[in-house]
Design a protein that fits this description.
The chain is mostly helical. Helices cover 76% and strands 2% of the residues. It contains 12 helices and 2 strands. It has helices spanning 5-40, 46-67, 77-100, 103-111, 113-125, 131-148, 156-182, 187-214, 225-251, 254-276, 283-304, 327-334, and strands at residues 127-129, 309-311. Strands 1-2 form a two-stranded antiparallel ribbon. Residues 322-337 have low confidence and may be disordered.
Length: 337
């Protein structure tokens, strides 16, 4: 029995919404846990903690493979190496950028990831955006900027750190979608290849980088039962965060993931005001939230319309398409936004 197009569209929309909610819940959850871990318990070793996150993710992929839920797959070593370089420079760059820049400039740098991701898709994937899609992205950037950008001061080394962070993060997110499409990898498969490499490299470099950033040694931290519980909780939630990021970018694209990602910024602001009081809540913050949400709704409508966001050529063969045409599969993959 062939499923009706409307039923398939409804099913895809439901799965997309579930994937996105999974990402929102885990992302907001890990922000809250990490804030408590770093602010309350003084565990300020962000890079080492990220290495532990990927170590836990590696354990999850090994268990799933042992249980038979993840099938063996192949990812060429040069591709893996490029991904790990982009991903690790993204993590390190963001941590250094936050330390060297004002909060305002750090937020501007994060906002600039959307134009950079758009540029990568236009140049590398031959994506074409409609006028409405472009304008909706501008509205999102404007709204989030009004909400979050306050003091803005720039210095040379901070600018370089932010530049590296923005480009490496954009390349890493582009590459998630690229590798899943080219090598027909599921989110679990891709994590199974990348998580062990990231865990080992970050746990090797992390303690030295954290000492440079904080002048504290991770080995000298006063570990106790409560702080260990928060570290384990952070690592557990991070498994969901890492997996949901790969699922979302695989189902959408890096640009759509960035646009929708700013909804998490708005949610964190709202939850912060709700739980920690209304300090900092004023008219321009509320206005910024409203503008950002309008822009996100507009982006969703504009990019889903015919011509809103489309690939001009099917120039990227997949591993399976080299054996047979796979035209229907290619068309389905290229239709993702």
């Amino acid at each position: 029995m062939v499923m009706a197009p409307s039923s398939k569209a409804d099913e895809k929309a439901a799965v997309d919404a579930a994937a996105w909610m999974f990402n929102v819940v885990t992302s907001v959850g890990i922000i809250i846990v990490n804030k408590a871990l770093m602010a309350t318990y003084g565990f300020s070793f962000a890079t080492t903690l990220t290495g532990l996150h990927f170590a836990m993710t590696t354990l999850m992929t090994l268990v799933l493979r042992w249980l038979g839920y993840v099938q063996p797959s192949h990812l060429p070593f040069p591709e893996l190496l490029k991904f790990v370089i982009f991903a690790n420079f993204s993590i390190v760059g963001m941590n250094v950028s936050l330390m060297w820049n004002s909060v305002g400039f750090y937020q501007i740098a994060k906002l600039s990831m959307i134009p950079v991701s758009c540029l990568l898709e236009v140049v590398l994937d031959k994506i074409r955006y409609s006028r409405d899609t472009k304008l909706s992205i501008v509205v999102v950037l404007l709204g989030v900027g009004v909400c979050t950008v306050t003091d803005v001061s720039v210095n040379a080394k901070g600018f370089i750190a932010a530049f590296i962070a923005v480009w490496s993060t954009s390349l890493q997110q582009y590459y998630v979608h690229f590798l899943q499409r080219k090598y027909q990898l599921s989110s679990f498969n891709l994590l199974g290849h990348t998580a062990p490499a990231q865990a080992s490299s970050l746990l090797l470099v992390g303690p030295f980088l954290d000492y440079w950033l904080t002048n504290k040694r991770v080995y000298a931290y006063d570990y106790n039962t409560t702080s260990l519980i928060f570290i384990i909780l952070s690592c557990t939630i991070a498994v969901g965060t890492n997996l949901s990021q790969f699922i979302c970018i695989g189902r959408f694209t890096a640009v759509s993931f960035q646009v929708l990602g700013h909804m998490k910024t708005i949610l964190v602001l709202i939850l912060g005001f709700f739980f920690f009081g209304k300090e900092g809540l004023n008219l321009h913050v509320v206005l910024g939230m409203v503008i950002a949400v309008v822009g996100m709704i507009w982006y969703g409508n504009a990019s889903s319309k015919p011509g809103g966001k489309e690939r001009r050529s099917h120039s990227l063969p997949t591993a399976r398409q080299q054996k047979h045409s796979g035209l229907s599969e290619s068309g389905e993959l290229d239709g993702k936004v």
